[in-house]
Amino acid sequence: MTRPRLEVLAAVHDHPHADTATLLRVVREPLPAVSHQAVYDSLHTLTDAGLVRAIQPAGSATRYEARVGDNHHHVVCRGCGVVADVDCAVGETPCLHPSDAHGFALDEAEVVYWGRCPQCLAATTP
Amino acid sequence: MTRPRLEVLAAVHDHPHADTATLLRVVREPLPAVSHQAVYDSLHTLTDAGLVRAIQPAGSATRYEARVGDNHHHVVCRGCGVVADVDCAVGETPCLHPSDAHGFALDEAEVVYWGRCPQCLAATTP
DNA sequence: CGTCTTGTCTTGACGGATTCAAGACAAGAC
DNA sequence: GTCTTGTCTTGAATCCGTCAAGACAAGACG
To answer: Among candidates B30, B56, B118, B109, which has minimal Cα distance to A105?
Structure first.
């Protein structure tokens, strides 16, 4: 748990849903010498440790967030790719038990809502 | 709607959840001369036409399936990346209305279940 | 029938994101 | 004090997907 890793963790905390390029830029503010490798490695380590969570909406690079442990999901804008958090409407984990899991041992249900954010809505329908 | 496109469509029908490399290989059996470009273009066209659907589980390349129009979701194996179809347990679309959509105009809820397939379960816990 | 237009296919090069490989370096174990 | 381990730097490589330019076939239209 070294300085680069702490800076990466802080960057993920401060910039939720940022992609790796953004995080690399942020981390290089206090630590100009970090390599992208260290950031990738740190992100993997932090992900394995459960301190950050990786999300990969279709069509964009990997993004990371620091909100872990609570069952929240994401809305992704089809226009600009912005990601926002949402809590599932139902209190429990409604979709965690599909009708037929084909023998899979499930440990997580990931939900992604697709739509258009207010800005893109305003831009396309003025 | 040309021969390459029909072959691509047939390949997606015959190989659900296959990635583009696999589809390219399959299409080249009857049509050895097709370029990857034609396959990519065909897949995009078919996706736009609603005849196939693209899915991108985190950590693997784009996959395509021909089951469209019904509200089904996917289980993905963390070990080998195998994808299988599941129908949502609840008849309606339970998660389509999150508590707070942040002003987004939602049009789709995508659900991915993560776990381990029977083969990987057997391999890791003998 | 001949020309024009449109859209698809081929070829080849490009770009971004991520990973691989090898060596340097620092810190703790013994 | 040396050894070992794990992390970081540097640099190259890989993989997926896209862009760009030209060839080519088919239908539209005169």
So the answer is: B118
